[in-house]
Amino acid sequence: MSxxxxxxxxxxxxxxxxxxxxxxxxxxxxxxxxxxAGRIKMNRITHWxxxxxxxxxxxxxxxLLQQANVLTNVGFSGDALMPTIAAILSMTAGTMxxxxxxxxxxxxGIGNGISxxxxxxxxxxxxxxxxxxxxDRDNILGVFFFALIGLLIVAMIVVFNEAHRRIPVQYGxxxxxxxxxxxxxxxxxxxxRINSAGMIPLIFAFSIVILPGTVAQYxxxxxLNAALSxxxxxxxxxxxxxxxxxxxxxxxxxxQQQNIAENLQRNGGFVLGIRPGRPTQDYLNRVIxxxxxxxxxxxxFIAIVPYLASLVTNxxxxxxxxxxxxxxxxxxLDTLRQLEAQLMMRNYEGFLR
Length: 353
Prior knowledge:
Elements lengths: L2 H19 L4 H7 L3 H32 L13 H27 L5 H21 L6 H23 L1 E14 L2 E14 L6 H19 L3 H6 L5 H26 L1 H7 L2 E3 L6 H36 L8 H26 L6
Antiparallel strand pairs: 1-2, 1-3
Helix pairs in contact: 1-3, 1-4, 1-5, 2-3, 3-4, 4-5, 5-12, 6-11, 6-12, 7-9, 9-11
Subcellular location: Membrane
Protein name: Protein translocase subunit SecY
GO cellular component, one term: membrane
């Protein structure tokens, strides 16, 4: 993970926690229904929640640097107190600056600013990754397989990110015109994506799967640390099942927050062949579970692609990050849609045909 991506990780974590707590805490539920004013208040809460996470991450980074013999003066006592506090405050301020910069990019209408910052950090690191992993070892064949696997992963990510099922919806409403009542109807659809969770299950899964190895490192348990190292099969098997499980968990939590069936019934809409209300909610739940099965298996495969690629290219599994490719493709598609919308709004003609 690049330094830039690591810098905004506390904000991403705080945002995910807010999404998971919204269905549980009534106050957050009320804020989510207040429109723009509620969104501003929830963003403010997310910003305050980012600060302690950024402080914890900063201290963890200092400890890791100390274990790598890069730093020797880390702690909260004696001569190490002031340098440690200064380093933590500097790293926390850097995180908040990146968050402010990302929101400024979003307000300008270019796209999701935080995602663009992560995208830039990943792209900057690719030349160095190629040089360290392949060119320095004169592994030209490895470069070829790296490019081939990367192209295949990008194509697969595009297909699964854009794939969705359209649920037909019929709207009917009554209007008064000329002293008489007329019945108007219209049709639309609800797009349910196969991969509606994005990269979040991958972040959750890898954050948890590295925890036992980290604890084992602190406890000096060499066998457990070796078994759960990123190069071992157990690590990747755990990552696969955790990604699948978190995909179902996150997708269902976010889907329940949207209250699609309730909003349809309030606006006079109904799914063709399904009664409004509870039957519509049950039908949509069944559909989203079936779709999520495909999306979960896809994300699980994306999670273990680095290990499979290492078996082909003879380069350590961490070299080819399919998670980074997933972020890059998702941000690229989202930015493309944002630019298309801006052009359509100003010139009534986009650049996509």
